[in-house]
Structures are given as C-alpha cells and as structure tokens.
C-alpha cells in the first residue's frame, strides 16, 4: 500500500513539476470559438480553456518515429551530404564505416585470357576453300607449322592427344553445354564441369529469366582442331593448354523472354554456323578436364540479327575522372610482376 | 581443395560445386586452412594486415557490414520491419513457357511495392483504389494532382515499376502499361505512450502502411469492375430468374 501511494505521489509530483504556469499576457494562438474546441455540435471531452491544450500535448511521450522509406524528392543524395552528416547518420544507426576489400578475387583453375588467339581465314564457311586468299592462308599456316608443333609436343607429354578424336570430343562437350544452358538453375553443377570459370558468366549472363531453345540439326563438316597452345603459369610444371576447334553445324536457336514471347532467333529455321570454340585444360592437374573457354568471333562474321522488339537506348552520364594516386600505381605495377596471368573471375 | 579455399578466402563468388566441396572440407577445418594460408602468403597480390587474413576472423563474422563497396542490394529488413515483401517479388521471377506459334502473346506483368510508409492504411486505400484500371500515364497524372500525402509515394512506386518494366522485363513502350492491381496492407505499428490521470498510461499507435502494384502491358480494359446494369439487362435477368423457378417434387 505504501509503495502504491508513493508511486502515485511521485507521478503527481512529476506531473505538476512539468506544468509551467501560463501567464495571462501570453496569448495562445489556437483556433476555436471562445477558446472552445471546434466540434460537430457535440460537447467534447476536451477542456474549454485553451491554456490546457499545450499542457495536454505535453502528456504525450515524445518518441522519434523510425523512417523506413523516404520520398525521393525529400531524400538527400549521398553525394550532397557532408562527411560529417554521413558520419552522424551512421553513428545514429550504428553502422560501421565502409569496408574495402583489397584482395583480388583469384581463380587458378583456368586462365583469364586466350593465348595467341586463332585468326580465322576470311569468308570461312561462305566461300570455297580454293579461293586464292584461302590458299595463301593455308600456306602461311604451313610455314608457321613448327611453332604450333612445339605446343602439340608439349601437350602430348601430358596426355594422349589425338586431334581428330579430340575434335569430336570437343563437339560433344559444346553440344552438351548448349543443351544444358536451356535450364541453367537445374544444370549448374554439370555446366561447371564443361565450362571454365571465365566462360561461364559469359554464357549464362542474361539468361536467368529467359527461355532458350536450342537444337543441333546436323553437322555440315566434321569438327577439326585448328590451333593448339600450351603455356606455363608461375612455375614451369604448372601448364595450361588451349585448343581451338572449328565446328560447322546447322543449329536452331530461339530465345524467349519471361512471358514466352520470342525475343531473338527462330524456333523453326535452322541456320548453318561456323564456330571457333576454344577448349582449355589444366593439363598438369590430375583432375583437369577439357572445358569450353571461349569463342572466337572473326571481324568478317555476319552481324547478328536484331532483337525483335525495339528498345530505348539508355543514356549514361559520363563517369567521373578516376583519381590516380602515385602509391597505388606503384603497387599495381609490382602486382603484375608477381602474378603474370592468373585468372580473375 | 586448396583452390576452393583460395576462392573462398578471396571472396570469389562460389559455385554450387565448390560449396559442396566446402562442406566436406571445412568440418576438420583448421589444418587445411593453415596450409592454405601459407600458400596465400607467398602468392598474395596485396599486402593486407594480418587481422584481415582470416575470413573466419571473429570481427568479420559477428559484425554485419552494410555499406561496403560491393553493396548493391538495398536492405531487406530494419529491426522487425520488412522492407521487401516475402512473396510479392517472386512474381517477377516467374518464367512462362514459350507461346505456341499463332496464339496471342502473353502480356508482360510487373509487380512492385513500397513497404512501411509512414501513412495511414485507411487513407492509402482511397489512393490505391482510385488508380485501379488506369493507364500508367493517366495514373501518374492523377496522382500528381492528388492532395493526399500518400499519393506522392504511390506515384514514385509507379514510376519505379515503369522503369523496371522497360529495363528488365522486355516491355517495348513505357506508356503501354496499365494498373491491373493496386492495394495497400498494414505495415508495422509503433507504440507510443500518453499519460493519463492516476498514474495510468494510454497507448498511441503510430501506423505504417505497405503499397503494392501490378502493371500489365497493353491498353487498360474498358471496365475494370463490372459496369452497372442497365434497366433492360436488369429486366432480362429478372425474367430469366422467374423462368428458372421450379416447383420442387412437383409432377
């Protein structure tokens, strides 16, 4: 009982101490007729004297309401905020200062680049191979022969390499990978066995919410190995090999958007395609396997068909000029010497 | 194995395959990890402070960093308030089968939302129901002149959705959209206090609201809701009902 009265007393004390006497000279500018609250013809529960209005509002506990979303028009851009403002904001929300990752994401199971990319002869697949330009190409390739023989020799040290057999194997890999692309989420694991980490995003990007229909109609010419390269990375016994294979096939390709509407290609019309696919293998690794690494698009290739629907080309504002510090440039130079050609993904 | 450790250590986006391997690798973690570390020290490209060597450093595990350089996605939750609805965005990831040749194409559909706006749900309802069945241009125009505060939020949501439609969902013309769904739901409620006599307290509820919209490609329908029946139609319906009467168990 004593505790209860104590509590009541205390609250009363607080209440009365928070009330400040209102002077008669202070005129409160609050609406209403004769100091009465406006109501729709009913007496209100509120006191008729205005001076209590301010005191009534003081009864409400002042809390700061969280602001989850703001209007864009009211929102201040991050660039407009001063560093001090940003700091205060972050302190208030209990955020930590930005963390920068200085590490370079590395992947050593494939190379980042194509070694000495193969240059396809002009008009390959369009003209007869007896044309004079084609002949001169073959002659020049014959002259270059010993150089690529070196690479083949090195490759044969590590594995039993037969060009004609390999070309068929490569074609099978390409066909399987293309078929798997039709359902990326389901076939992700298998795709990683057939495609290198460098080529995977190139193949998959943008296909996530689209439907791709692809099928091989026939092989026009037997596949053929046209280019072999081997290279060591960091140490002499760490060897990668890249083989370019020429495929001449007839394919059907149609890409549909999320709503099943045709975006690109044709579901009925087969087209004959000449492809130069680069296969890569980490040959010095016990578990290395031949995987698709990239494709060579010759400059003379016919341009791709347009998308069926038109779209507005977005306008991008130019990037701000990059700030170059002397220290950072030095560091990067050193880095390049340390790791010559590790793949970044 | 070493390679996977390396990938993970260096923040590479891990594939499903490597995740599987990781589960096997990381149970007896530390031996493998230490060997990985020695390799890294030799070949690492950047000199990072020792405390940052470990991905499993306590500070990095326990602390949730928000505004890192790689932060692309907005926050999904602040405290107990969701900023992204659990299911509504999933409609934007539905992939429909290709339309057979000769059949009419399926119109594009885009869902968008804004969660926990500081506004009354009851007041928001007036705005949400007003724009139903409007073309997007008409809706934005009407909202621009609407005097309620929530209209500004709704207008921004519509504009965002329109931009998304053109950018991500293969919609050709941005004006060729209409509002097929528009509704609001209750957001979180923050409780405040008001002092009463005799050491009592009253609870004040500060309410938040969520707004959802679905745009559809094409022209808006003539009637979003079924139109009012004309006198003739009413009469026809009456007559039909009269004729449908049957005597139960009659001969």
UniProtKB/TrEMBL annotation, chain A:
Family, as annotated: Belongs to the mitochondrion-specific ribosomal protein mL45 family.
Name of this protein: Large ribosomal subunit protein mL45
Domain of life: Eukaryota
One cellular component (GO) term of this entry: ribosome
Subcellular location: Mitochondrion
Ranges of biased composition (kind: Basic and acidic residues): 324-339
SMART domains linked to this entry: Tim44
Keywords: Mitochondrion, Ribonucleoprotein, Ribosomal protein, Transit peptide
Residue stretches making up the Tim44-like domain: 145-297
InterPro entries: mtLSU_mL45 (IPR051975), NTF2-like_dom_sf (IPR032710), Tim44-like_dom (IPR007379)
Chain intervals for the UniProt region annotation (Disordered): 317-345
Automatic annotation (TrEMBL), chain B:
Keyword field: Ribonucleoprotein, Ribosomal protein, Signal
Recorded GO CC terms: mitochondrial large ribosomal subunit
Endpoints of the signal sequence: 1-19
Keyword NAD appears in the UniProt entry: no
One Gene Ontology biological process: translation
UniProt keyword annotation of RNA-binding present: no
Superkingdom of the organism of origin: Eukaryota
Single GO MF annotation: structural constituent of ribosome
Family: Belongs to the universal ribosomal protein uL22 family.
Protein name (Swiss-Prot/TrEMBL): Large ribosomal subunit protein uL22m
Organism this protein belongs to: Biomphalaria glabrata (Bloodfluke planorb)
């Amino acid at each position: 009982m004593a505790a209860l009265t104590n509590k009541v007393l205390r609250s009363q004390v607080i209440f009365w101490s928070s009330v400040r006497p209102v002077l008669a000279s202070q005129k409160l500018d609050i609406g209403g007729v004769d100091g009465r609250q406006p109501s729709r013809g009913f007496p209100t529960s509120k006191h008729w004297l205005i001076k209590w209005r301010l005191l009534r509002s003081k009864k409400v506990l002042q809390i700061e309401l969280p602001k989850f979303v703001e209007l864009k028009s009211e929102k201040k851009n991050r660039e407009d905020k001063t560093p001090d403002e940003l700091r205060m904001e972050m302190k208030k929300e209990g955020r930590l200062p930005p963390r920068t990752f200085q590490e370079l994401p590395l992947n050593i199971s494939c190379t980042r680049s194509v070694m000495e990319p193969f240059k396809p002869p002009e008009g390959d697949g369009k003209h007869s191979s007896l044309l004079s330009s084609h002949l001169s190409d073959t002659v020049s390739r014959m002259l270059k022969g010993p150089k690529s023989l070196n690479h083949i020799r090195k490759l044969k040290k590590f594995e039993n390499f037969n060009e004609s057999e390999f070309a068929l194997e490569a074609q099978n890999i390409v066909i399987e990978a293309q078929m798997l692309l039709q359902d990326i989420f389901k076939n992700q694991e298998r795709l990683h066995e057939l495609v290198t980490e460098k080529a995977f995003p190139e193949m998959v990007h943008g296909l996530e919410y689209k439907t791709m229909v692809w099928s091989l109609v026939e092989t026009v010419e037997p596949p053929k190995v046209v280019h072999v390269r081997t290279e060591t990375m960091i140490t002499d016994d760490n060897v990668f090999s890249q083989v370019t294979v020429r495929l001449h096939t007839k394919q059907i390709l149609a890409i549909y958007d999320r709503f099943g509407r045709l975006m690109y290609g044709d579901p009925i019309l087969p087209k004959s395609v000449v492809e130069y696919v680069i296969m890569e293998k980490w040959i010095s690794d016990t578990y290395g396997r031949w995987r698709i690494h990239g494709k060579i698009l010759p400059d003379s290739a016919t341009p791709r068909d347009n998308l069926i629907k038109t779209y507005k080309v977005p306008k991008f504002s130019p990037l701000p000029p990059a700030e170059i510090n002397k220290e950072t440039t030095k560091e990067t130079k050193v880095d390049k010497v340390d790791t010559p050609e590790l793949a970044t993904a | 194995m070493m390679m996977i450790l390396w990938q993970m250590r260096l923040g590479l986006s891990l594939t499903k395959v490597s995740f599987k391997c990781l589960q096997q690798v990381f149970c007896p973690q530390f031996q493998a990890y230490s060997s990985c570390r020695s390799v890294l020290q030799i070949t690492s490209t950047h000199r990072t402070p020792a405390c940052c060597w470990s991905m499993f450093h306590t500070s990095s595990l326990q602390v949730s960093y928000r505004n890192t350089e790689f932060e692309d996605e907005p926050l999904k939750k602040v405290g107990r308030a969701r900023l992204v609805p659990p299911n509504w965005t999933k409609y934007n990831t539905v992939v429909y089968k290709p339309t057979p040749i000769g059949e009419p194409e399926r119109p594009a559909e885009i869902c968008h939302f804004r969660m926990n706006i500081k506004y009354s749900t009851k007041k928001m309802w007036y705005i949400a129901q007003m724009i139903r069945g409007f073309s997007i241009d008409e809706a934005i125009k009407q909202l621009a002149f609407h005097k309620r505060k929530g209209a500004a939020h709704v207008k921004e949501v519509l504009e965002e959705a329109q931009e998304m439609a053109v950018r991500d969902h293969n919609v050709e013309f941005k004006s060729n959209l209409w509002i097929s769904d528009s509704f609001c739901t209750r957001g979180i409620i923050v409780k405040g206090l008001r002092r009463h006599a005799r050491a009592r307290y009253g609870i004040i509820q500060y309410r938040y609201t969520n707004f959802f919209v679905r745009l559809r490609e094409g022209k808006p329908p003539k009637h979003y809701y079924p139109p009012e029946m004309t006198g003739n139609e009413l009469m026809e319906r009456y007559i039909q009902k009269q004729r449908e009467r049957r005597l139960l168990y009659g001969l």
